[in-house]
Amino acid sequence: MRKVLLPSMIIIAASLLVLRLFYLQVINDSFKLKSDNNAIKIQYDYPERGYIYDRNGKLMVANQPSYDIMVIPREVKNLDTLEFCQLLAITKEDFIKKIEKAKVYSPRLPSVFLAQLNKSEFAAFQEKIRNYEGFYFQKRSLRDYQVNFGANIFGGITQVNDKIIEKNPYYNSGDLIGKQGVEESYEEILRGIKGVKYIQKDKYNREIGSFKEGKYDTIAVQGEDIHLTVDMELQKYGEELMINKRGGIVAIEPKTGEILALVTAPNYDPAILVGRQRSKNYTMLYRDSIAKPLYDRGLLAEYPPGSPFKILTGLVGLQENVVDTHTTFMCNHGFAYAGGRFQRCHCGGGSRDLNVGIYKSCNAYFSNVYLRTIGKYKSTPYAVDVWSNHVKSFGLGQFMGYDLPTGKKGKIPNSKTYKKIYPGWGYSGKTIISNAIGQGEVLLTPIQLANMMSAVANEGYYYTPHIIKKIEGEKIDKKFTTKHLTTIDKSHFKPMIQGLFDVYNFGTAAGLRVEGIDICGKTGTAENFAKINGKRTQLEDHSIFVAFAPKDNPKIAIAILVENGGFGSTIAGPIASLMIEKYLRGKITRTDLEKRTLERSLQDRYAKLGGLSEVVKKEMRRKDSIAKSKIVVPKVKIDTTKKIN
């Protein structure tokens, strides 16, 4: 039996090996399709990316044809280099550099020699392409922006790098991929599926037809269209109001969490990052380390929130039952605390309850509320954590989970924070009193401030902010329709909302009222320090304003932060009133506020910190001329209600 077993096993194993080789070499052709097979040429067909529309169905981003000159280095023969370089408007040095780069990638495989030629650039080359062995063209599509704003929302398209190719086998050298904004967040939906053709070649390297009669060929599938939550007109208007200023505006629909506008300033025309000038323009924008036009201040910039944070100080005090709506504190033009220190206040002084404390923005009132909150418990660290957890329930101090690829957590301190700051000795509420008025260790991004106001407008809940409204043929992520509850009882929001309404009636925003619209808001001014010549220097305060409207059944919540803008009522406040009226009515009646805001420039203040790049200067001049001409509706090149086929 043993004599038979071993030979039998050998025969069976050999038979299986022969059958496998027969299957791979005769029956299954898939291994012949590998990219390093010299007998088969792989040709890709790139689909159009999906179109991008705003919440009202207006087209914002379409496509335009583009051509890449491809090269297979080992097939380049008998080339008239001088003529070739003249046709493509490149130098001989550029030619050598590009060929060498292609050889490094692969001598046998195609790679991009020159990318993103437009029709006119490609026309002359197309007539003579048959003379240049080893070169061919690959048709692609580039973005065609129907608007000259919203660059931070859209993001852009760029070539994949080696790391992306290694990580994701879908991409090949020269492929395009979405970078930043919705182009990155929804890349797999927008990009579609590229088609592929396998072309058989003979021993002389001539194409003789489709491999296996096209059995393995696939057709390109166009990317899906997406509809954003953004209101195109509101976004454009916000960017105009922020000309010659730095900062961010975020507007949200409270009942849904849909982002209505996401403005960062300074911004730029997205079209300057399309085509052969993309690299040059991107480099200039990137090197502007002062104005930072590529830096989305609405999502990334962390600021002390200032007085708008008093809203949460008051709500936490009510929830912890350390005060009620009738509790009063005396303000002596400020608040004296530990060691004779004095926190100034501009409310005018006198007895303050919750309502007056809010609409007059009394530092003394909210500092007392904060001290009572921290003093409620025997352990200060425990009390700080109680306070911190209440505040974090508004979506603060954490990544919010929105559908854009960039963001910052902000900072809401807890007991661990102060254990690091004050190691080895105790601290009390007075030590960290600045938290009460949105200074101290508290940092928020503009989108977090807007989300906070959405939760207040909704009387205790919010939805994760998001920028996708509809995807053709798909449902949006359910996390954007999941309600998040704060730790504050609903009953505490009504007196707070009344106080915010009275900010416009009797308080710091009384001069910003819009007839017929009940706006609830809060001014804010945050101290601002920067290092200049190595020294910590106090600069003009940041101007902050948060609001929602109407008071009943709110349709919009908004946060505005203008760097070095001064008092909240001077620049940020007027922008809030104008944005709210623009969204709710579609027109502006407070033309006095509009004129003042459009003409207001803070460039003299920013000049202390350094200059701007030439690209940003040019862009600001262009947008300035647009704003002064009062063009409201952008010039649209194509039908904004129908898709182009």
UniProtKB/TrEMBL annotation:
Keyword vocabulary terms for this entry: Carboxypeptidase, Cell inner membrane, Cell membrane, Cell shape, Cell wall biogenesis/degradation, Hydrolase, Membrane, Peptidoglycan synthesis, Protease, Transmembrane, Transmembrane helix
Repeat recorded as keyword: no
Membrane topology classification: Single-pass membrane protein
Cellular component, GO, one term: plasma membrane
EC category: hydrolase
Domain Penicillin-binding protein transpeptidase as annotated: residue spans: 247-577
All residue ranges annotated as the Penicillin-binding protein dimerisation domain in the record: 46-209
GO molecular function: penicillin binding; peptidoglycan L,D-transpeptidase activity; serine-type D-Ala-D-Ala carboxypeptidase activity
InterPro entries, per the entry: Beta-lactam/transpept, Beta-lactam/transpept-like, PBP_dimer, PBP_dimer_sf, PCN-bd_Tpept, Penicillin-binding_protein_2
GO biological process: cell wall organization; peptidoglycan biosynthetic process; proteolysis; regulation of cell shape
Pfam families in UniProt: PBP_dimer, Transpeptidase
EC assignment: 3.4.16.4
SUPFAM superfamilies: beta-lactamase/transpeptidase-like, Penicillin binding protein dimerisation domain
Main location: membrane
Gene3D superfamilies attached to this UniProt entry: DD-peptidase/beta-lactamase superfamily, Penicillin-binding protein 2a (Domain 2), Penicillin-binding protein 2a, domain 3
Subcellular location(s) per record: Cell membrane; Membrane
Name under which the protein is recorded: Penicillin-binding protein 2
Species per Swiss-Prot/TrEMBL record: Flavobacterium nackdongense
Gene expressing this chain: mrdA
